[in-house]
Amino acid sequence: MTSRTVVADRLRSAVALVGCLLAALGLALVWLARSRVDRPVYVSELGADGEPTAALFEAALLLVVVAGACVAWAGRGVRSVLPGLRAWTVSTSVGAAAGLFLVASQVPCTAGCPLPVGPAATAQDAVHTGAAVVAFAAACVAMLQAASASAGRALRLLSVVCGVAVALIAATGGILSLVGVATAVGGVLELVATSIAVSWLIVFGATTAWGPVRAVAVGAPARGRRTSAQASA
Question: Is 149 helix (H, G, I), strand (E, B) or coil?
Answer without folding.
Answer: strand
